[in-house]
Each structure stands twice: as C-alpha cells, then as structure tokens.
Fold this sequence. Notes:
It contains 2 helices and 4 strands; from the N terminus they run E-H-E-E-H-E. By secondary structure, it is an alpha+beta fold. Strands 2-3-1-4 form a 4-stranded antiparallel beta sheet. The protein starts with a strand and ends with a strand. This is ATP phosphoribosyltransferase. It comes from Suillus subaureus.
Amino acid sequence: MSLRFKLVFFAPKTHTAEILSMLFKQCPNVLGKIGQYEECAFITPGVGQFKPGPGAQPLTGEPGKLERVDEDRVEIVVSDQGDKAQLKDAISHLKAVHPYEEVAYDVYRLEDV
C-alpha cells in the first residue's frame, strides 16, 4: 500500500533553490510528484528566529544571541511505498544538503478523500 506525506521544512532564502534541486535530483520518483507534474513545491517566505545555545555552530549568528533570518517554508509531497523507507530516505537527504546544523522539519500524512 502506498502512502503520501507532506514534508515541510524551513531554509534560509539564499539556499532554498539549491536544497530543492538536490532533493529532486536525489529522490526523483519520491519527492514532488503530483499527477503528471514533477518537482512540485510550495514556497512561502517568512522570518525564522533562533538563539544558538552553548556549543552550537550556527550558519548565521553566534551562541547566546537571538538571531532572525529570512527563510522559506517549503512544502513537498513524498510518495512512499508504505514502510516509510522513502520518507526516511528523503529526510536523510534533506539533512545532508541543508546548511543548518539542526534542520527544522514537519511531516504530515496525507489522506485521499
């Protein structure tokens, strides 16, 4: 039984296109396919906020100081064969190509109605 998920992640605006390009290249049959369309994503601009703790190595900012960054919220569909292996693989690829030390992401299961 195949399952569909929505993978939502947050990325610095300067890196969104590169992250998506790498993800679609690494997982072409799993990510961003909707019907006859490929590499589909929804991107919403916003501002992310964080304060790195001691020992953190942030891409932007420094430990102990509040930082705000122009980011994109990116939403892509994940097609999984039912055991969540493709979903886990997509998340692993996301973590590998993302510039942040800690990648913020959410996963939602999609239902057909």
